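hey can u check if this looks right to u? its 383 residues, i copy pasted from the old doc so theres a chance i mangled smth
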Amino acid sequence: MKTKQKRKSSVVFPDYIPAKLVEGKEWYIYFYALDPYSNVLRRKRVKFNRIKSKMDRRRIAQQLVVKINRKLAEGWNPFVEEEAPKAFNKLYDVIDTFLAEKKREMRPDGFRSYNSFGKKLKEWMEKEKHTEMNIFSFNKYFAVEFMNSVYRKDKVSEKTYNNYLIFFRIFWNWMIEKNYTATNPFKEISKKKEKKKNREVIDEPTRLRIKEYLEKNDFPYLVMCLLAFHVLIRPKELMGIKIKDIDTKKQTIFIPAQTAKNGSDRIGTIPNYMIEMFRKMEIEKIDPSWYLFSEDFKPGKVKVDSRKIAKRWEKLRKDLKLPLSIKFYSLRDSGIIQMLEDGISAEYVRQQADHSSLDMTTIYSKHARPDGIEQIKNKSRAF
């Protein structure tokens, strides 16, 4: 039976009591080490009766005592080793191991975020001189310090803070699975309350300016913008569309599960006037395996980088002197609102937008009919 000894302030070694040899009917070496999961010093005992010669037994046992005490002084902990055999690996190095594995498993856009989060922790460790820190030593105190640094010094938004938190919970759970640790110091850190999404509506005059500008300067990018507005396709989903996914006869676009945000296949409906644009592109003459948007947003073998979508929008925004609040994603939000305003059923809009519930779609209703209260006041007929 394992015995436990509570930590006392008078103990010279706060995390362990050095090993000693006990000689008697039964020979054994014993020492105390801190159990990090109960925060008490627990005794470990190593039996030593197997060597017949007492002289040899004593000599070898004393050598083992010296070895155990040296390891204890260097930070070794047998209880940590039992729960997580790899806990004394350097955290700085294991971040790279995790990222290398995820790079093979994830799509480039998703991995880009993972790589950014991992790099941020490494930068913090370098700044705080913690690059030699082992995984076991990185406890909740350091997790909180790191998250505070991200929030206060980097001044990230509540949403970005929560994204960091989610990533490091995933990373530590991976380390638990791989026997690097037995605990997750980020698990008990609370998420920040996020501000409600500010949906910037692009009004009709501004949309007309955008359309005229792109018709003159960048027709392929106009097609991309209209797919975001009318078919409500998200930027990352737009990148994955191939020529074979477009059916101009049925007026549909297939968005496969591997590119869809919600991980399920879906079909978007193309409005009548956009069909003529696809004919103008002569997509029936293009290799079906090509991506709809590649270099310069024209069809090609390699899909366009998502960063180029934002960069091109930034140029458009500056050229037209649009406010910073109007982003590429505003096209999708504005498209949803326009559909509701046009009287299209909220359920049909939900399907087109790929919302998980009707509640999410109806959030846009107040933007679609901002004059609703006045209409109720003035247009309701008497009973």
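The radius of gyration is 31 Å.
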